[in-house]
Write a structure and sequence with these properties.
It contains 15 helices and 17 strands. The protein is α+β, with helices and mostly antiparallel strands. It has 3 domains: 287 residues, no CATH class; 111 residues, no CATH class; 57 residues, Orthogonal Bundle (Arc Repressor Mutant, subunit A), CATH 1.10.10. The strands form 4 sheets. Strands 1, 2, 6, 7, 8, 11, 12, 13, 14 and 15 form a 10-stranded mixed sheet that branches. A 3-stranded antiparallel sheet has the order 5-4-16, with no helix packed on it. A two-stranded antiparallel ribbon has the order 3-17. Strand 7 and strand 8 form a beta hairpin. Helix 1 packs across helix 4 and helix 7 packs across helix 8.
Length: 475
């Protein structure tokens, strides 16, 4: 960075798992239901209630670990993470500490430190203004969320910019979505991200004092919040002040950063093994079941498209991030694999421009139809302009490209007297352009080609027009 400092960023991501029930009890998971309707003695922390581990949550955690290339612990245990806050009715959170279910691994160029299971806290709602209780500001607690299964993914401090943090989190979200373990909806809180941020002089390998930005609930806010914290730390150091280790809140409205509390260390939580839960011991059957559900992941798909099909990085990335487009592309490719990049361009460009975020498989344009259209274009049976008209008809009404070309008279005009006559008239209509062409200024061919395309309604082959112009002018 121009300031002489570089940021060092690690991310902590909490992912709500898409199970039917909570982590340690049988209460239903929900979003948007009335407060405190999905509770029981276990998730309310009533005396004598005993937790039982959700087997599906273990299964999903194994899938996450495999997708991230983690080492799976043959035996892992749960701990009590002690702190007193209204969103924890037991006075502690059941989590994993020194023996997480997954460790190591990487996603892209960011290493994974660990991924472990835990239960979510309840939801605190701060009431003020017209919603005051008995005339006073208050905080109320909705315990519906308390006990929701979470996987917490902790990265190594490998991220070096706010933009990289946003890009990597986007990749992680899409990976988790395609795994099917979570709906990863940041707006609903099923994916939440904390960022540990520090700075150090460029070239140094010594980590600076880190701060933690909590619960940023959108990619845009994550990027802006990290940028603001980097700038704040640089300003502190340059003015001779020290960065204090603390937990911070970023206000996306004002762009300001405020302190929430001092940053806790592990010993502050007084971790000790959960006495009411037995260790989680993996079996070959559990590992095989998780592996059997793994789909091709976004990073793998992008690499395959680039290496095996020769797609551009942009096309490969788009198809990797949109599984619906990837499935549609592969179905079209099965019809005609001779023009992979051209087919990819037409799906990711022209078709997406017409359908937006809609799944193309649900449109009237079948994979076979888009493949046939690209084949017609490749064989020069239609021009690009005419092909776009055909695609418009397909989007509106469906059908077969060849039939539309014939019915609408959209076939390309190549050689022959008809096109030669149109070129002749184009040259006669613009003597100035003709003189420039004869003088060697080939840029002047533009108005001539434009005339021909208007007269032929875009059906003329551009290469043939150029050849005829040169031929008729003796160039």
């Amino acid at each position: 960075m121009s300031s002489g400092y570089e940021p060092v960023i690690g991310l902590e991501i909490h992912v709500q798992l898409r199970t039917k029930t909570k982590m340690f009890c049988g209460c239903e998971l929900s979003f948007g239901d009335p407060p405190n309707v999905h509770t029981c003695p276990v998730c309310l922390g009533l005396p004598g209630a005993l937790p039982v581990v959700n087997a599906r949550a273990i299964h999903y955690a194994l899938m996450v670990g495999m997708a991230l290339g983690c080492e799976l612990a043959p035996r892992s245990i749960f701990h009590r993470k002690n702190y007193f806050y209204p969103d924890l009715p037991k006075g502690y959170q059941i989590s994993q500490y020194d023996i997480p279910i997954c460790s190591g691994g990487n996603l892209g160029d960011v290493r994974i430190h660990r991924a472990h299971l835990e239960e979510d806290a309840a939801k605190l709602i701060h009431v003020g203004g017209s919603g005051r209780i008995h005339g006073a500001d208050a905080s109320v607690v909705d315990y519906n969320r308390g006990g929701t299964p979470l996987v917490e993914i902790v990265t190594e401090p490998d991220v070096r910019s706010a933009a990289q943090a946003r890009e990597w989190l986007t990749l992680l979200r899409e990976t988790l979505r395609q795994l099917g373990v979570s709906d990863v909806n940041m707006e609903e809180g099923s994916l939440r991200c904390d960022a540990n941020v520090s700075i150090r002089p460029v070239g140094s390998d010594v980590l600076g004092t880190k701060t933690e930005l909590k619960n940023m609930n959108s990619f845009r806010f994550l990027e802006r919040g990290v940028e603001a914290e980097i700038a704040r730390q640089i300003a502190l150091v340059q003015s001779g002040e020290e960065v204090v280790q603390e937990t911070l809140h970023y206000d996306p409205v004002s762009g300001s950063i405020s302190s929430l509390r001092s940053k806790e260390e592990a010993h502050d939580y007084r971790y000790f093994p959960e006495p009411d839960l037995v260790p989680v011991v993996l079996t070959e059957a559990m590992i095989a079941a998780a592996r059997a559900e793994l789909p091709e992941l976004p990073a793998q798909r992008a690499a395959r498209y680039e290496s095996q099909l020769g797609l551009s990085a942009d096309s490969a990335r788009l198809f990797a991030f949109r599984a619906d487009l990837a499935h549609y592309f592969e179905a079209a490719l099965a019809e005609d694999d001779a023009n992979a990049q051209v087919l990819a361009n037409w799906i990711s460009g022209e078709l997406v421009a017409r359908l937006g975020d809609d799944d193309p498989a649900q449109s009237k344009v079948t994979p076979a139809a888009i493949a046939q259209l690209v084949a017609l274009l490749h064989s020069r049976a239609v021009t690009p302009g005419a092909a776009k008209q055909v695609l418009d008809r397909l989007v509106a009404d469906g059908g077969e490209p060849g039939a539309i070309v014939e019915a609408e008279g959209l076939g390309a005009i190549g050689g022959g007297d008809e096109l030669a006559d149109v070129v002749r008239r184009a040259l006669e209509s613009d003597p100035s352009a003709v003189e420039k062409l004869k003088a060697g200024n080939m840029k002047a061919i533009g108005p001539i080609v434009g005339f021909v395309m208007r007269e032929t309604k875009g059906r003329a082959d551009g290469g043939e027009v150029n050849r005829l112009v040169r031929e008729q002018l003796g160039l």
